[in-house]
Amino acid sequence: MTLYSIAESPLGDLLLVGEASATARSGVALTSLSMPGQKGAPVVEDDWRRDDEVFSDVARQLRAYFNGSAKTFELEFAPTGTEFQQRVWDALDDIPYGTTTTYGHLADQLGVERAEVRAVGAAIGANPLLVVRPCHRVVGADGSMRGYAGGVPRKQDLLIHEGALQPVLI
């Protein structure tokens, strides 16, 4: 059964979606975390059931992240994707808080040919677990902010929050 909840955040209300899991500490394996206006975000279906309690640990960890008292997440994920996408998404977990990496560097780490860097970017763009799987930490080779499903301004906000990017003062 698909379960969902809404978690408030500085980025707007986050839609948490998951499947009941007997092995997950919280009782749910997260399949999606999306933001308002996100490209390709899931929409609550009629047969989904809202269960704020089962997502309470996810919401607690998100609050800790946004208030600066946590830098990592300890959650069970169950996203659907190709084997290649899963490899890329797993690699995102290794990018430390407060740092960035480039698409090319990530491709090198994965043993992907330079000609296939776009495939890495496409897999990152399909990441269904924004914030908790830190695709926002991947930037262009020149340090530029490339696309982000939640919008480039939110990517910048997350990087500023983590101290990986300085705010622009006008």
Automatic annotation (TrEMBL):
Pfam families, A to Z: DNA_binding_1, Methyltransf_1N
Domain Methylated-DNA-[protein]-cysteine S-methyltransferase DNA binding: 83-164
One of the GO BP terms on file: methylation
EC number: 2.1.1.63
Keyword Lipid biosynthesis assigned: no
Domain of life: Bacteria
Keywords, sorted A to Z: DNA damage, Methyltransferase, Transferase
InterPro entries cross-referenced by the UniProt entry: MethylDNA_cys_MeTrfase_DNA-bd, MethylDNA_cys_MeTrfase_DNAb, MethylG_MeTrfase_N, MGMT_N_sf, WH-like_DNA-bd_sf
Domain called Methylguanine DNA methyltransferase ribonuclease-like: residue spans: 3-78
GO MF entry, a single one: methylated-DNA-[protein]-cysteine S-methyltransferase activity
Name this polypeptide is given: Methylated-DNA--[protein]-cysteine S-methyltransferase
Annotated organism of origin: Streptomyces fildesensis
